[in-house]
UniProtKB/TrEMBL annotation:
Region: Disordered, residue numbers: 205-226
Keywords: DNA damage
GO BP: any one term: DNA repair
Name of this chain's protein: DNA polymerase Y family protein
PANTHER family: BLR3025 PROTEIN, BLR3025 PROTEIN-RELATED
Domain of life: Bacteria
InterPro entries assigned: SulA_CellDiv_inhibitor
Length: 317
């Protein structure tokens, strides 16, 4: 390489040309002491950096604390599936950021920007919620592809923006030698995520525990990708029947005993329930486990009111 390429040698090019040192290799072979007296330290320092003889202090790459990336499309995109090319580039950037930060994503958002002007349409928001934290691009792209396949664009898209929402530390890989039979819990959750993306979150549901003592209120259904709360204690679950009727059935009374296909014998109880006063649906009940002559067990209650009546509310397996 010619010495003219080194900025520190510009002031000494005439002298270097006169002594025949026109290339950096020839300049490097000159005695350092004499070169230092004639040119000074800057040229020697630049020469050492060029050949890697000097220690270079490099700055560590600063990884952003949050992830947000944007890309513009090459033209007006009118079909949602055509957005997958730009979305793939954004997903690859996000997974690289997740790996560098040792994080996994739980929710991320893809923003579709439409044309601006008088007839401008607000950006379309696609929020992807995962049942389990993930960081691998193949799984994230599969979910995004399913969502885009169901999307109908209101207007042409001119740009995409991806934002990582809720995050969690990345879990260590499974160290088991043999795979679990039937798949691991992570495989099951990935299947739920894929079904939710394909069928819609309102069509893939899971039972949710609601903090309410009333049996007709404590059980509800929600999206399967929603973060699950810890289940109730096992001892408490054993007291409840697997089948709770949506509408309690009024029971007849024979010989001062509740009757359902046969006289019922109370074998456990009472369990008193007082709740619902805060929403004008107050209930006062005494619950019992009763058994019929066929050994079938039922969950019944006595309504605590002036006109006390027996009701069947659930059945045990």
């Amino acid at each position: 390489l010619p010495c003219a390429l080194e900025p520190a040698a510009q002031a000494h090019l005439a002298w270097l040309d006169g002594i025949g040192a026109r290339q950096l290799g020839a300049l490097r072979r000159l005695p350092r002491a004499g070169l230092l007296r004639r040119t000074g330290k800057p040229l020697l320092a630049a020469l050492d950096h060029a050949y890697g003889d000097a220690q270079a202090l490099h700055q560590w790459m600063a990884i952003p604390a949050t992830f947000a990336a944007h890309v513009e499309t090459f033209g007006r995109i009118e079909h949602a599936e055509a957005l997958l090319v730009g979305a793939t580039a954004l997903i690859l950037q996000m997974t690289g950021w997740l790996t560098a930060r040792q994080l996994a994503v739980i929710t991320f958002t893809l923003l579709l920007e439409h044309e601006r002007g008088r007839a401008a349409v607000p950006p379309t928001l696609l929020e992807i919620m995962l049942a389990e934290p993930a960081w691998k691009e193949a799984h994230l792209l599969r979910l995004l592809k399913e969502r885009l396949a169901k999307l109908e664009l209101q207007a042409p898209v001119i740009g995409l923006a991806l934002h990582a929402g809720q995050l969690q530390p990345m879990l260590p890989p499974n160290a088991q030698l043999f795979p679990e039979p039937g798949g691991s819990p992570a495989d099951f959750k990935r299947l739920l995520e894929l079904l939710s993306a394909r069928l819609g979150p309102d069509n893939v549901l899971t039972p949710l525990d609601t903090p309410d003592h009333r049996p007709e209120q404590c059980n509800s259904w929600g999206p399967a990708t929603r973060s699950m709360k810890p289940a109730a204690d096992a001892d408490e679950l054993l007291e409840r029947p697997c089948w709770v009727l949506q509408q309690p059935i009024a029971l007849r009374v024979r010989d001062e005993r509740p009757f359902y296909m046969s006289p019922l014998r109370l074998i456990r109880g009472p369990e008193r329930l007082e709740a619902g006063w805060w929403d004008d649906q107050a209930v006062g009940r005494d619950y019992y486990v009763a058994q019929g002559t066929d050994a079938a067990c039922y969950w019944i209650y006595l309504e605590r009111s002036q006109d006390a009546r027996w009701f069947l509310h659930g059945m045990y397996a």
